[in-house]
Amino acid sequence: MPVRSETLLTEAGPNALVLSTTLSDRGIWLDSTYLGHGSAETQITHLLVAPGRSGETESRTVAHDEIPVIHVRRLCLYDHLQRLQDFLDSLGHTGQVHGLDLAIEAVEHIG
Predict the structure, then answer these.
(1) What are phi and psi of 15, to 5 degrees?
(2) Residue 109's pLDDT band (boundaries 50, 70, 90)?
(3) Domain extents in the chain
C-alpha cells in the first residue's frame, strides 16, 4: 500500500547539505548530511529511525570526485535515496520515487 513521504533539503553554506526524508505514516525517517570541499574527501553521515528500532547512525568517507558536495549536489540526493531504499528493504518495505526530476532540479538550484 503506497504511503506518502516528504524530503526536505537544507543548505548549510556551500560545503554542507542536509537531506531529510520522513514517511510519517510509518514512523520512518532518514537524515543524511554531506560535507565536502575541493580536494578534501566527502564526509557522509546517515541517521536511520524506524519503529521498534533505536536510532542508528552510520558514517563513511568517499573521494571528493565520487560525491562533490559543492558542484554536483544531485549525487548527494542519489546517495540519500539509495540509502533510503536499502533501509526500507531491510524493514520489509519497497520504496518508489515519484517526482525525481523535480527533486533533482530543486537540489541543483539551491543557494
Answers:
(1) -105, 0
(2) confident
(3) 6-100
